[in-house]
Amino acid sequence: MTADCERVCAVVVTFNRKDMLRMNLDGLRSQVRSVEQILVVNNACTDGTAAMIRDEFPDVTLLNLNENIGGAGGFNAGMLWAYEHGYDWVWCMDDDAIPAVGCLQELLDPAPALGDRPLILCPKIVHHDTGDLQLFHHKQITADLVDRPLAQELMQHAVVRIDANGFVGPLVNRAAIEIYGLPIREYFYQADDLEYTYRLGAHGGCYLVTGAVIFHNDKTGAVSERKLYYWRRNYTHFVRLNSHRRHFSPVQRWWVFAREALVSLYYSLALIKNYAQGYRGGFLGPVRGYVDAFFMPLDHPSSSLPTSAERPGAT
């Protein structure tokens, strides 16, 4: 079966950003190569998102969650839904992503040449307002598990092998989900995309398709203690997980964990420094996140496909 004959389900996770979501859904509806299904995962929105979808987008399927389980939980639930409904590809994105009209077609075009194996195909991410390339979402991971943005010069190629990618439009095939499972729900948000796409890419293939374009309508806000807590917790867990998988030596493990401890301390000190600019939140979140990462299990059952069709917290 060619990629053009396969069925695609777009999974969009949203939380209280219905105006952005409207732009996202308009972009998905406008694709040259149509999407067979659009699934919106409603992370317990309180801003009228569900009513807006029912009134303006009656063709969109809504998966209502009973509580906000974060982007990680939302993608876990949405990708499971798409897998259980038999779709061949799952197109993942947050509500602030707006695919160009030819994005899906461009993503699918190189798929047959890449072979019948677990695949993630990622569009080039461009900032919606400035037009700047967001290369930091296209990731290269060093041997000691440092996250680096893709080198600019590699963008001249039509298809580029990368190590990981943000949840801004990656297209995941069914084989990848069947073999390597789902995002870790317990991450809540931050680094869930890094862990998942790196897990799949390390065993199958994660590729950037530079002719496919998706616009990222992200708005830069103040860095919060909460956000840094989850970032440092989940990134440190990512390092723990992959240093274990790669069988790091005791010296290698000591080095990577010492590095992450120093990075976490740096972020806590940066929050203290922000008090001069009017910041009044806490500052221990990054350090607490680092410590809490060592109490998280390496084996998260939520990342495996369940034996039943249950989706926790969904209606």
From TrEMBL:
This is Putative glycosyltransferase. Belongs to the glycosyltransferase 2 family. GO terms for molecular function: glycosyltransferase activity. Residues 10-141 form the Glycosyltransferase 2-like domain. Keywords: Glycosyltransferase, Transferase. InterPro entries: Glyco_trans_2-like, Nucleotide-diphossugar_trans. PANTHER family: GALACTOFURANOSYLTRANSFERASE GLFT2, RHAMNOSYLTRANSFERASE WBBL.
